[in-house]
Amino acid sequence: TADTRFSLDTGRLVTHIREAKTLGYRFKPVIIGPLTYLALGKSKDGSDPLALLDRLIPVYRSLLDALAAEGAEWVQIDEPILVLDLPQDWKSAFERAYQKLQASGLKLLLATYFGALEDNLHLACHLPTEGLHIDLVRAPQQLAAVLDELPPYKVLSAGVVDGRNIWRNDLEKTL
To answer: What's the rounded mean pLDDT across residues 97-112?
Structure first.
């Protein structure tokens, strides 16, 4: 609804991170992105989910601050809606949101999957993140276009294992 408020409780997450660090593990948190979060939500009153973005971004900033305080270097932000045909207002919202999130000081890896970026290729490659993850299992044809568009200072992460059939993967062929 239009009066939705967001809050954050990092207690459980911080506990898991500290446990992993105690065991000597390095960690890279993976979170759902704010635009995908809003797109997946259900409105009871027909309100525009994008109207909630300015209330949601400070919560994401708090989450990123908490992760940085625990020693995170990279955070993967999953935005699978980037493989959909997005209206211009959603594309503009991505630019607005990630301008605000990039100030966290963390390295952000923007992740897409379940398809090709297509019309969102330029947008995804040029958002203020340090890296981009793409799905090369379901959309191997996008690799050349991504390599042409992605700035050379960004990290490219390639999804090459089918998450729905990881046990059937031929690791030698994949490599």
So the answer is: 95
